[in-house]
Amino acid sequence: MAVHWASDPRYTNQTGISAPETVISAFTIGICATGVSPRIAELLDTIETERFPDGFRLGGIIIVASACTERTLMYLRRIRRTDPRILLIEEKERRGKAEAVNRIVTEAAGEFLVFVNADAVPERGAISRLLRAIKRDPKTGIVSGNPVIDAGDGVASRVLELMWETHNSCSADLDQTRLANHGTDELMVVRTDALASLPAGVVNDGAYIAGLAHSRGYLVRSLTSASVSVDVPTRPIEIIRQRRRILYGHLQIWRLVGEAPRTAESLILLSPGLGFRVLVRTMTRRPRLLPALPFALVSELISLVGALADNLSSGQKHTVWKRYGD
Question: What is the residue-wise DSSP string for 65-89?
């Protein structure tokens, strides 16, 4: 939805002759929060202090707070009172992220919808760069950010660093070839015309939104210059649980959309040549991560077996999952 401001007196010179029409694109930011959400204050501060580019107007910030702690709710209520753009939707119990995303989609207004997780913090200017990128090309339905992690020491940290480096390398390759159909829900901007309600029980919301947009003829892009800091598990068992849920979600989307999300792990299985080229390029660029490769492959295999078993036993697993941060 584009808003025209040509009649605004701010755009009229002193002689009374109207300046060239300026088209303002309104956008909404949607945030799903649950539990403690310890980074929500940092995230909202980033949004509140962001200088969005000319031609864009932030119309609203929708926060769905599902089963948040009372301390987190008190903070969100206080912030809402100081910023009328914020719509706070409180849910006493978690019903799954798909339902929370649908609440945001229903309430959103404007030409674009920015999704950002409550446990993720975009770098300064990242949202603006994503907005400019998607507006430049009307064929683009989604543009994702570039997740980065604060890698520590130990095997688990190295495995996670390897996984995310490979993920980002894969996204960059697919972006160049225009073959991407996977969105990174940590931070992404979606054209509202490309949006639709998520089916109940969808686990990987970003992947579903991107897969559906791609099936409708939209381009799915990523932007390496729009970094977003994300929280990650700290123990090997938490990594396996998270990967099992994500792989389950990818299999679910393959069934719903008719095409598997193109990620590093799916390419290794379905397009080995391309998948292994991405992996080799990552290892060449980050040789210090080579010792983590065996652990990453083993944990991924265990996660895949679990995801396959989950898909066979039930079509509604992982809708509400245990968060490692709580």
Answer: EEEE-HHHHHHHHHHHHH-TTEEEE
Whether 306 shows a pLDDT value over 80: the answer reads yes
Cα angle vertex 164, ends 64, 321, to 5°?
Answer: 40
Across the chain, mean pLDDT equals: 89
Collapsed DSSP state (helix, strand, coil) of residue 212: helix
Q: What is the DSSP code string of 259-326?
A: S----HHHHHHH-HHHHHHHHHHHHHH-GGGGGGHHHHHHHHHHHHHHHHHHHHH-SSTTSS---TT-
SS3 130: helix
* Inter-residue long-range contacts of 317-320, CB under 8 Å, 24+ positions, other chains counted: 317/248, 318/203, 318/245, 318/248, 318/249, 319/95, 319/96, 319/98, 319/200, 319/201, 319/203, 320/94, 320/95, 320/96
pLDDT band at 320 (very low <50, low <70, confident <90, very high): confident
CATH superfamily of 21-313: Spore Coat Polysaccharide Biosynthesis Protein SpsA; Chain A (3.90.550.10)
pLDDT of 80-136, one tens digit each?
A: 999 999 999 999 999 899 999 999 999 999 999 999 999 999 999 999 999 999 999
Measured CA to CA in angstroms, residue 25 lies from 11, 56, 105, 198, 256 at distances of 16, 5, 17, 25, 32
Instruction: Specify whether the CB–CB gap between 246 and 310 falls below 8 A.
Output: no
